Amino acid sequence: MKKYILSLLLFLIISLKSYSQIIYVKQDATGLNNGSSWENAYTDLCIAINSTPSGQIWVSQGVYFPTTDLNGQIPSDSRFKTFKLKLNIAIYGGFNGVETDLNQRNWVNYPTILSGNIGDTNLYTDNVMNVFSSEYVNLNLNSILDGLTIKGGYANNNGGGIYVDQTNDGSFIIKNCIIEENFARGEGGGLYVFNSNPIIENCIFRNNKAFRGGGMYLWYSDATISNCEIYNNIADNFPTSGSSSLIAGGIYIGSYSSPKIFNNSVTNNFARGEGGAFVNNSNYEVVFNNNIVSGNQSQDGGALFLGWTTYCFNNLFFNNQATRYGGAIYMDYDPNRSQFINNTVVNNSAGNEGGGLYITGANPDVTNSIFYNNTSPIGRQIRALNGNGSWSPDFRYCVIQGGLANLATVGNPIVYQDNIDVNPLFINVANNNFRLQATSQLINAGTTNSTVITNPWSGSNGQVINFPITDLDKYQRIVNTIDIGAYEFGSSLGINTPEKFSFTLYPNPANGIFNISSYTNYDSFSVYNIQGIEIFHKLNESAIKSIDLTNYPTGLYFVDFFINNKKYTYKIINK
Nearest to residue 485, comparing CAs of 340, 382, 365? Predict the structure, then answer.
């Protein structure tokens, strides 16, 4: 038994040492070419990947081209050359070639470019088919691409930039990368993923092109996509293919996928057919929240084409355009109920119907959302065709410019409850600032039924979906007095942005006296009026349990709690 334990410990130590090793790649290194240091770095990244069983590969600035295929061989057709995305290998770029710590690199100043443009530099058709690829291998969270520029792939089928086809439901990480100028004569110009759950964070997808999913194409995937910029991607013919399915300029979500897509900017993408920015055709639920979606174009669904259930929370849609239906959003036939809550839909246009939103046969709940200054010949704000069974959309606590007159509906009667027709009073429309002014009637005008946004939803594959606790500015949502639209008033004052719920103030609203309940001890608190002026500051020397505003005017106030110099902000209403 002791011998077995010692053998196991030795195996673990060797495995840990193997994974922690660092292999160096530098294209102009002149040493031993064995990857042991910057001086002795490999000059060929493919050789480094093929020679390394696990660990980290640090790649210095410069332009690198693949030299081998997925089997580590030199292929007879050079277009099959590719960098291999490999189990337990983390590839980091952005080094100057002298660093001793990951934190010292700078992928902006020292770009590491992995290029598929191996032939005529003025052509793409002779480029490699996949700059990075992984096929029939089960990746994991130690499989990382970080700080790289991946460009110049030209796939005959899928995944010009990155192609991943796994046998089992694994994962990998793409972080701090630029995926640009890749092409696919099929799906996923920048990224194609089948049967894997990547974590994609702080990346740029730009100027990629495909028939479907110009930026990325995901199916059988529970990906997480956050803090990314996805722009100028295209779903169209190139050259003319005769394909009629030219959809999803930015992101395409296919069958059996439940991705979470949040905190992204998705702008200026184009699709010849559906969904300039995004298409959801998954039979599982998709979460799309806290995104800014603007300047996208397509035939139907200038920004979003939702073929199945989608949870859209706290998004801003503006300046999107459809040549036919749904300037911002097109909701197609849907056997479930999409949730469209606290979105701002403004300044979008459609050539035929539904300047802001077009619904045909779907059954969504539309709550706490703004539809303003959207244009089309029919249904300037919303067009709804309710012909399937007894289904029809529900609209509650929304701002709909023009009211029912601008919600053109036929078929089954809709639910139209507690909606208002007022000017939202945005801060600066000319500069695309759609936060609310202090005098807006939308402040605290959202649903009074807190269960609408606090009860979690259950997904088809067992996931639990929750409404975000923060708005589009990462500012705390006040559930019981929630505002209408993507922004909760107060973020524009620049007071601060909270990280989490730490306190309860009750009752709220109140007649002057607000009780304080906290999970942690706070150092002090300040109270601000609606102009952002501090009206008093208290230290917690005597464990203060309440705030007294009985001698102050009625209206909205902000309370800052301080813990170790961190601020947590809450809204209260003095009646």
Answer: 340
| CA proximity to 216, closest of 242, 194, 241 | 194
Residues in the chain: 575
SS3 letters for 506-563? Answer: ECCCECCEEEEEECCCCCEEEEECCCCCEEEEEECCCCCCEEECCCCCCEEEEEEEEE
- Rounded Cα gap, residues 155 and 210, in angstroms: 9
Q: Dihedrals φ, ψ of 3, to 5°?
A: -65, -40
Residue 341: beta bridge partners? 313, 367
R_g of the chain computed on alpha carbons: 26
Q: Which residue has the higher pLDDT, 509 or 406?
A: 406
Helix (H) or strand (E) holding 89: strand 89-95
Q: Are 62 and 78 in contact (CB under 8 A)?
A: no
Looking up tokens 């960098």 gives: 83
Instruction: With CA atoms as reference, report the closest residue to 573 among 518, 527, 521.
Output: 527
Task: Answer whether CATH 2.115.10.20 is correct for domain 500-575.
Answer: no
CATH 2.60.40.3080 residue ranges of the chain are 500-575
DSSP classification of residue 101: S
Q: Dump pLDDT digits (tens) for 147-174.
A: 999 999 999 999 999 999 998 878 999 9
Hey, what amino acid is at 352?
N
Q: What digits encode the pLDDT tens for the residues 351-398?
A: 999 999 999 989 999 999 999 999 999 999 999 998 777 788 999 999
Q: What are phi and psi of 382, to 5 degrees?
A: -145, 140
What are the structure tokens assigned to 25, written together? 């790649």
Judge whether 534 and 528 are in contact, CB under 8 Å.
yes
467: left (phi over 0), alpha (psi -120 to 50) or beta: beta
Q: What angle do CA 373, 406, 351 make, to 5 degrees?
A: 65
Average pLDDT, the chain: 89
d(CA 211, CA 189): 8
Higher pLDDT, 531 or 432: 432
The model's pLDDT over 558-567, given as tens digits with 9 standing for 90+, comes to: 888 777 666 6
pTM: 0.83
Q: Exposed, middle or buried, 413 (CB in 10 Å: 0-12/13-18/19+)? A: exposed
Q: Are strands 426-428 and 433-436 parallel, antiparallel or unpaired?
A: antiparallel
- Of 51, 563, 566, 272, nearest to 43 (Cα)? 51
Query: Among residues 568, 493, 557, which one has the least CA distance to residue 525?
Result: 568
d(CA 259, CA 13): 36
Rounded to whole angstroms, the Cα distance separating 316 from 480 reads: 22
Q: How confident is the model at residue 130 (pLDDT cuts 50, 70, 90)?
A: very high
Task: Collapse the DSSP code of 78 into the 3-class scheme (helix H, G, I; strand E, B; otherwise coil) and give the result.
Answer: helix
The answer on pLDDT for 411 being more than 80 is: yes
Closest listed residue to residue 282, CA positions, set 207, 222, 201: 222
State the pLDDT at residue 406.
87
